């Protein structure tokens, strides 16, 4: 018996797959989206009466393709048929299974093409691959739906006009193209984590969409860095319930109730981490995942292997010598016991490259407080407060500042 | 598809850095693109010191010295190419020797609407 519920379920499971294939067959995002909806509308009419076809995905693809060609024909009734339609009709729609899996990767690499800005790529990815509505995306990014809609329209236009191909890059181009895909996924994840400027610290939906994307890419393209990013996201997400207290205030890693960490996510990540460590070629996501894995396996801050974490940050810094990595390296160094050197580095960073970066001042303040330099710590908390835009973070810094002032 | 690859560079860097290309290398690359059937046209340009800008406003012609925009990176040359898609165009652009010291802007060509 095929009911509307069954079809809704198939939509949830397979609509992105069908869309990805229709985009390849029709070579047009908008046309493919309309075709997808027409195909499901037909399914709703036919399947309950005639029964479900043996291969619903293939049926939806071929119905969608047929509807789209039909639409193009009607639209062009007056004029001669343009060559695209003739070509489209002549092609056999290739709907073999291996092709279908490739289509999902094609869609990912097209939405995350480096010639699209990260903002455009994230909006397009959330719309086309995650099937979020423009309203949902706008809510997550605290912006107007019209802004998001325009971003998506422009990105699609660029794909068409600039000739961005619908393809998975070959082995040679993959190392250049994969980082942007991973960056987009991680941007979505982080937006879910620290919804910028907003009051809500955890916007779960985005983080979960990013993990779902990470799982999909890991299934289709199990490169070490893909697995590394997935492991990193799983490990960070495993702490989601411990990151805030009942009042919605931030709880730092060192003060978190580790009983609240989600062990199933940690276990999944720990199976991935060994597959990401490939000697000298180990990438930045894999290194960060390895660091997060050490935290996940420790029963407390004191029991954490800070020496190993410090060493991993060293490797990460040698690959990726940015001021933010330098800051994390200094934090690990302080925890590993080398507090004076760490403080010197932090002071230098907070006064120079990271002078407008809130976490640099917050981290320096923490260390100063630990070392008993109360007045200097208070000054650093004040500077961090000036720079912070998140309400929970501001409350946390305010509380710390108050502690300093009471001492 | 046709793409115009615009070569931009700080004119100082174009010839003075360790990675700066020599004319021989540029000529060889252009020749290889002719060989593969990708190059439609391409030239290197004289320095912007030798540029003259023309504007016509209300029928009046204004001629001024120098380039249109005062920027650090100047247009130093161009390649008009024929490529299958943007990915192929970007692969070709990556090989343009001055990409190592300047930047290559890849722009699809627009058909004029004349009917």
TrEMBL record, chain A:
<dbReference type="InterPro" id="IPR013324">
    <property type="entry name" value="RNA_pol_sigma_r3/r4-like"/>
</dbReference>
<feature type="domain" description="RNA polymerase sigma factor 70 region 4 type 2">
    <location>
        <begin position="108"/>
        <end position="159"/>
    </location>
</feature>
<dbReference type="InterPro" id="IPR046531">
    <property type="entry name" value="DUF6596"/>
</dbReference>
<dbReference type="InterPro" id="IPR036388">
    <property type="entry name" value="WH-like_DNA-bd_sf"/>
</dbReference>
<dbReference type="Pfam" id="PF20239">
    <property type="entry name" value="DUF6596"/>
</dbReference>
<dbReference type="GO" id="GO:0006352">
    <property type="term" value="P:DNA-templated transcription initiation"/>
</dbReference>
<dbReference type="GO" id="GO:0016987">
    <property type="term" value="F:sigma factor activity"/>
</dbReference>
<feature type="domain" description="DUF6596">
    <location>
        <begin position="177"/>
        <end position="275"/>
    </location>
</feature>
<dbReference type="Pfam" id="PF08281">
    <property type="entry name" value="Sigma70_r4_2"/>
</dbReference>
<dbReference type="InterPro" id="IPR011990">
    <property type="entry name" value="TPR-like_helical_dom_sf"/>
</dbReference>
<dbReference type="InterPro" id="IPR014284">
    <property type="entry name" value="RNA_pol_sigma-70_dom"/>
</dbReference>
<protein>
    <submittedName>
        <fullName>RNA polymerase sigma factor</fullName>
    </submittedName>
</protein>
<dbReference type="InterPro" id="IPR013249">
    <property type="entry name" value="RNA_pol_sigma70_r4_t2"/>
</dbReference>
<dbReference type="InterPro" id="IPR007627">
    <property type="entry name" value="RNA_pol_sigma70_r2"/>
</dbReference>
<dbReference type="InterPro" id="IPR013325">
    <property type="entry name" value="RNA_pol_sigma_r2"/>
</dbReference>
<feature type="domain" description="RNA polymerase sigma-70 region 2">
    <location>
        <begin position="10"/>
        <end position="75"/>
    </location>
</feature>
<dbReference type="Pfam" id="PF04542">
    <property type="entry name" value="Sigma70_r2"/>
</dbReference>
<dbReference type="GO" id="GO:0003677">
    <property type="term" value="F:DNA binding"/>
</dbReference>
Automatic annotation (TrEMBL), chain B:
<comment type="similarity">
    <text>Belongs to the YciI family.</text>
</comment>
<feature type="domain" description="YCII-related">
    <location>
        <begin position="1"/>
        <end position="111"/>
    </location>
</feature>
<protein>
    <submittedName>
        <fullName>YciI family protein</fullName>
    </submittedName>
</protein>
<dbReference type="InterPro" id="IPR011008">
    <property type="entry name" value="Dimeric_a/b-barrel"/>
</dbReference>
<dbReference type="InterPro" id="IPR005545">
    <property type="entry name" value="YCII"/>
</dbReference>
<dbReference type="Pfam" id="PF03795">
    <property type="entry name" value="YCII"/>
</dbReference>
